[in-house]
């Protein structure tokens, strides 16, 4: 029988307990990568949901998700007249904290013009918004169901449709309302504030402001030609869908990527140290057996193989349990966790290398054992 397997069977309880602890550590490593994948998917999902090809925003702005952007609402009519534009729709974006069934509920509210780009292209249930006011489409993650009524601002909205898997970069579920309602929600002043503004003679400002205009193009139209046309207007900026996604993935979630990457590296370093200490301790416990092997003429390769195989077995079992735990628990995380096969394979290769490196201390100790130790007390 293989010496590594025989030794593992001899200390099976201790070995499996160590593997269980290691699996939790490797599970956290894999979870961190899954959380990052989820962040990117959430960020790109909110940008891809409208199916737009061109985003028109305020001049020198990089889009409504990265920087502030406020443009006149009638920009939509000007964009719609550009050659190659099929449809154009104005949208607003804002974060709101409401109360539902006695609990605080944060929503990322999107205002759009029904029938134009900006709204959800696919619904999980219910129907699209058909009235100009007081109808709402909510993501299932919000806990809102068809027929529920929620107060946003000073108005009551009824849920008429639901989406699935649409959250903002901050993790807040997305809710869609009509553009008119969103503009009132975002720009209307409270009665007290209105009286104050009228008293100082500053009232009467229009609230026909939007954050962006989304455009879809006719077949065979050039995205670059439309964006260049808009940029020549000086007071507006235009981004293609690819540019918008690049900003979201490289800028908006960049800090999260760095932090998760650093944390993952630290966890892998800690895993290496733990595996090295465990293998070193296991080697100390069987120094007499190793000395006996040397005394009967066993080659160094047999002893080295014993230690490395134990380290690899520990890494493989711990990694397999860690992957299984993450796959079972990923749907219960507050944020989306996406486990990709490529990431599992990459972490598996890293764990293999970590086990080989971590076994170095044990191998060094085993090779220094004097065969005479087998005859000692």
Q: Explain this structure to me?
A:
The chain is an alpha+beta fold. The chain folds into 2 domains: 3-43 and 252-376, no CATH class; 49-194 and 205-251, no CATH class. Helix content is 50%, strand content 19%. The protein is built from 12 helices and 12 strands. The chain has helices at residues 3-10, 12-48, 75-80, 179-187, 191-199, 223-231, 241-252, 254-285, 287-295, 300-329, 341-358, 360-367, and strands spanning 54-58, 71-72, 85-100, 103-112, 125-126, 135-139, 149-152, 155-163, 174-178, 209-210, 212-217, 236-240. The strands form 2 sheets. Strands 1, 3, 4, 5, 6, 7, 8, 9, 11 and 12 form a 10-stranded mixed sheet that branches. A two-stranded antiparallel sheet has the order 2-10. A hairpin with a 2-residue loop joins β3 (85-100) and β4. α2 (12-48) runs antiparallel to α8 (254-285), α2 (12-48) packs across α10 (300-329) and α10 (300-329) packs antiparallel against α11 (341-358). The longest helix has 37 residues, at 12-48. The protein is elongated. The two termini are 28 Å apart. The model has no long low-confidence stretch (mean pLDDT 87). Residues 262-371 form the ABC3 transporter permease C-terminal domain. This is FtsX-like permease family protein. Keywords: Cell membrane, Membrane, Transmembrane, Transmembrane helix, Transport. It is found in: Cell membrane. It holds the Pfam family MacB_PCD.
């Amino acid at each position: 029988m293989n010496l590594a397997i025989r030794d593992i069977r001899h200390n099976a309880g201790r070995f499996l307990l160590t593997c269980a602890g290691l699996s939790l550590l490797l599970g956290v490593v894999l979870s961190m990568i899954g959380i990052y994948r989820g962040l990117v998917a959430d960020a790109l999902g909110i940008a891809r949901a409208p199916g737009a090809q061109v985003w028109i925003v305020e001049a020198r702005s990089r889009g409504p998700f990265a920087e502030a952007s406020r443009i006149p609402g009638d920009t939509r009519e000007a964009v719609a007249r550009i050659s190659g534009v099929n449809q154009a729709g104005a949208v607003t974006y804002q974060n709101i904290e409401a109360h539902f069934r006695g609990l605080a509920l944060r929503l990322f509210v999107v205002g759009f013009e029904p029938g134009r780009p900006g709204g959800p292209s696919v619904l999980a249930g219910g129907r699209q918004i058909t009235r100009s006011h007081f109808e709402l489409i909510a993501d299932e993650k919000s806990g809102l169901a068809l027929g529920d009524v929620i107060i946003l601002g000073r108005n009551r909205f009824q849920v008429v449709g639901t989406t699935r898997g649409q959250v903002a970069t901050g993790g807040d579920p997305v809710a869609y309302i009509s553009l008119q309602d969103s503009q009132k929600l975002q720009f209307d002043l409270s009665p007290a504030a209105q009286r104050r503004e009228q008293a100082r003679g500053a009232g009467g400002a229009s609230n026909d402001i939007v954050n962006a205009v989304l455009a879809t193009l006719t077949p065979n139209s050039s995205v670059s030609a439309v964006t260049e046309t808009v940029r020549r207007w000086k007071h507006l900026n235009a981004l293609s869908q690819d540019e918008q996604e690049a900003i979201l993935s490289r800028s908006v979630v960049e800090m999260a990527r760095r932090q998760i990457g650093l944390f993952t590296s630290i966890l892998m370093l800690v895993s290496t140290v733990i595996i090295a200490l465990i293998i070193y301790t296991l080697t100390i416990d069987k120094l007499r057996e190793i000395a006996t092997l040397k005394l009967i003429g066993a080659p160094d390769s047999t002893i080295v193989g014993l230690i490395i195989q134990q380290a690899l077995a520990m890494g493989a079992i711990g990694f397999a349990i860690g992957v299984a735990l993450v796959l079972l628990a990923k749907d219960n995380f507050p944020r989306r966790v996406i486990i990709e096969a490529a990431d599992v394979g990459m972490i598996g290769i890293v764990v293999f290398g970590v086990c080989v490196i971590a076994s170095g201390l044990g191998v060094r100790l085993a090779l220094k054992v004097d065969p005479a130790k087998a005859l000692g007390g």
